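Hi X.,

You mentioned you wanted examples for the new student's onboarding notes, showing what a folding record looks like when two proteins sit in one file. Here is a clean example. The first protein comes first, with its sequence line followed by its structure tokens.
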Amino acid sequence: MTITDETRADAAEPTLDHLVSDFYRYQDLLTPREAEQVGRIREMFETRVKPIANEYWARAEFPKQVIPWLAELGTLGPFVPEVRQFENSALYRGWVALEMGRVDASVATFVGVQSGLAMGAIHVGGSIQQQADLLPRMARGELLGAFGLTEPLSGSDSARGLRTTARREGDEWVLNGAKRWIGNATFSDVVVIFAKDEADGQVKGFVVPTDAAGFRADKIEDKIALRSVQNADITMVDVRVAESSRLPGIRSFKDVATVLRLTRCEVAWQAVGVAVGAWEAALAYAKERQQFGKPIASHQLIQDLLVRGLGNITASIAMCVRASQLQDQGLQADEHSALAKAFATARMRETVAHAREIMGGNGIVLDKGVARFFADAEAIYSYEGTREMNTLIVGRAITGQQAFV
């Protein structure tokens, strides 16, 4: 279904309290049904995720107890017709990413990996049987997945630089290589692994069980961002999977790019959420913190920082809204999501820095509400395409000139 102006005719009636950061009331673009579901997700994150977020972040552990709640609310695979709980738009899915990001970017990243990347790869490249077998279980949180693209020596150049190989032997494939920064991989049941076919040099996709012989996932320790996300280094030595584990719709990197196109805009929305979370904490602090005999919110310099942050958030929401609308209309191209991701993450980085500045020394401790966002922003700024790579995608679109190495 394409979301049209007619289907949104009833969207003007408010059904959900507005975030103070939604200064231009973009939330009103949601349908009442979408707004109602956003309200449930907001409540869950405020009451069940927010109270434990700092604790798990400090311990570098993932709160697995949230997975059934996420599944119950339909956050896993909402774009997949076979498993989504109700008809929804890209705008709705983006707003959900914002809501999750404004409370805990680590949980939002888990959802992005499970729902967008792993399920997205199976939705785009899987056979009818694979989709029927895997996607419902993943939507219920019964089968956890990861997305194995990035490698120790291949990140931005994944289109040409993959070193993981796949060799067919009869009805099996033999995989060898390494992957890095693979979210969820330490506790997932399956990982979608992308490897170059030795026969034709093209990228293929495989659903690999994490208990396969020769497969190993080691947690990456000592991170300073997204500490609750369980990133792993994966090594594969003669890992054998059946031909039935190959995703037949993944025949080249162009097909992988289709999956990334599904998720990149939602990462931009998530970045807006991180900016919102930090800005909201700084605003609340500024109203309470007394200096020179009055709240610091009454100081001109503090108001200037708050307004700069609000401007960044508002501009980023506007760009994300339009990119999502283009997706709903079937008009979104790579450059649209690339610009949204590059812009929103840059403005996020600036906004969380302003929020930390407003809070002074208290901005570097977890319990004051900004430090975690300040740190997590650094990871979001880089993953799902760095600012530089997304800039080159947009630059190619507007100049017609290829500037990639």
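Then the second protein repeats the pattern, sequence line and then tokens:
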Amino acid sequence: MTWESLDTWWWPYLFIIIAGWLATDIWRWLGVLIGNRLADDAPLLIWVRAVATALVAAVIAKLILYPSGALQDFPLALRIGAAIFGFGLFLATGRKPWIGILSAVATLFLGRLLL
């Protein structure tokens, strides 16, 4: 590879693939190596799980309360209602994520058609 090859159309894509792999794969392998030695009820693992759950909850709350794109056109009450309905079906059906997600999306679409 030479410096002249940096002007090709595919170079940025190759760089993103390599840099993305290097930046994330190392942490995945360290997680596997360290995670195998931790008990399921280890305080560190409980803390990591709590932080991950809080981050997911924050992203979901941001998407519902301050949406961008096409979701901005949906009324706030519909977005909150769809989330509550999806979460309720998620719990009622034995914690199956796909049922909760599909029911919330279906509620959004049906609510948008009716409004």
